[in-house]
């Protein structure tokens, strides 16, 4: 009986063992036959070492397709510590070629890791260093494809473009703003190794191709940017201000045509500069009291409400106005006397603008200031924009209302001023400024996404805008902006000379000088704003320092924009200090002894008695003391 029970138990145990053994065989068969691919993938993942191959970041181009930032394929050094045979010798060789510290390199190549990059010395190395390492063919040392971000124009558009870090990620400017769009998917070279780090020749290497990021096209026009950059460099050299900025915009769309911030930096070597320079794109970041440039906002607001006729209604400027017990003075001792309201704008009379504000009243003043976009971000597609500072309505007493009318007591950014000024002269529409024109396919360069102008609201009437274009042209012809006047081009604008507030007190020696302008005033194509912080010269007026810089820009920009000269501009008001203008006659065909014009110096070139050509040509306008070159020849007529 007992023997039978034992025998049954043995049979049961045997059957169980057979079942278990069968299950094991089935599992092994399944894994070896059915799940073979999955097992091999897992094994390969354990064996393979990934060598990253950097993708090419998308390029940034201007509106004409000129490249402003692009990736250059480069080379970096990676090591497999398990394959290095002589760590000391390898460290010595690598440190010599890469100009790195030997102990640091030794520590990297002896780490207990599968693969390791040598950085920063081994990142983006030169072709000469790459060739030297390739020739040595050091065990465990590999050269892998990397990418180097290059800014071919160096300091040009520096704060706008920004820069990338060591792993080619966007860190500032547009590189940061559009990092996801510009970034490329990395590829990899996968090489199988055994546990000791030796190549497993039984299996092949695998390669995953890197991608390319999309290109970003800007609204920036490099030709206009070149001109503005040149003149801003001249401004910095001549007057040595603490900082300076310039911003050009198409007033009819909000497209940014040029943007300059000084001091600037070279994005190729951003690490050599202070973060105070490369993190501050002044046209959108800097916030300060705008001074008299803001008077165009106040003037257009009152004009829009028909509070005066700027040609016939008058105001007597006695030199000051009393507001809430405070004396608000005119910049001119004794005032300007009896003026039309157009002359109040031309003469930039602070007491006159106190009167304009009184007619406006707080409710209207505050509504227009807010509608023009002050006190809020413009929404420009660049990182780091400031909002400026505007009083709360309930905090604006009589004095605050008066000072805001002529640009003190509030803080604005240059892009807010340019956007508002564009609305003043474009027919009254406030546009959102933007700097990105399109997203492009990196291979075909076809447009994937195109950005269109965004109209926010109508701020003033079209008829008001027409009057303002005339008024602002008159400021250039007869007022503070006359140093930007160009014969044949209708330029309008308003100068600004704003005292800097330092520790809550207005400085008597430091000013922000500016000029806010547009051209041509019969059909505006460009708004240009230029400002300089504390230029080092004796004459602290925006019309004296900044207006000539704007003039130099317009002399090249307007012909480029195909703006034709006109004879219908407002004549410039002259003083005894202005040079005498002389219109040249046609001297071709005259005998040289008969050529004469008082105030002109004539130079002759060639032999003979007859003028066969002249430079400049007839009709050109010269200042008194100008020179004319006469080309002489023989008269062939018998």
Helix-strand layout with pairing:
Layout: H1 2-34, H2 36-47, E1 48-53, E2 60-61, E3 67-79, H3 87-98, H4 102-109, E4 116-117, H5 127-136, E5 141-150, H6 158-161, E6 163-164, E7 170-172, H7 173-177, H8 179-182, E8 187-192, E9 206-208, E10 215-218, H9 222-239, E11 243-249, E12 256-262, H10 275-278, H11 282-285, H12 295-304, E13 314-317, E14 320-323, E15 326-329, E16 337-340, H13 341-346, H14 350-371, H15 398-405, H16 414-425, E17 429-432, E18 436-440, E19 447-450, E20 454-458, H17 462-478, E21 492-502, E22 505-519, E23 526-533, H18 542-545, H19 547-560, E24 581-583, E25 601-605, E26 610-615, E27 621-623, E28 627-633
Parallel strand pairs: 2-10, 25-28
Antiparallel strand pairs: 1-8, 2-3, 3-4, 3-5, 6-7, 8-9, 10-18, 11-12, 11-23, 13-16, 14-15, 17-20, 18-19, 21-22, 22-23, 24-27, 26-28
Helix pairs in contact: 3-4, 9-19, 12-14, 12-17, 14-15
**SS field, number of helical segments:** 19
Shape: elongated
Number of strands: 28
Largest beta-sheet details: 7 strands, mixed
Are there runs of 5+ residues with pLDDT below 50, and where? Answer: none
Helix content: 25-40%
Into how many domains do the coordinates divide? 4
CATH architecture descriptor of the largest domain = 3-Layer(aba) Sandwich
CATH level 1 class label of the largest domain: Alpha Beta
Mean pLDDT over the residues: 86
> What is the CATH fold-level name of the largest domain?
Beta-lactamase
Cα gyration radius (Å): 36 Å
Counting helices, strands and paired strands, the structural category is alpha+beta
Through-space gap between termini: 158 Å
- Note the beta-strand portion: 15-25%
What name goes with the CATH superfamily of the largest domain? DD-peptidase/beta-lactamase superfamily
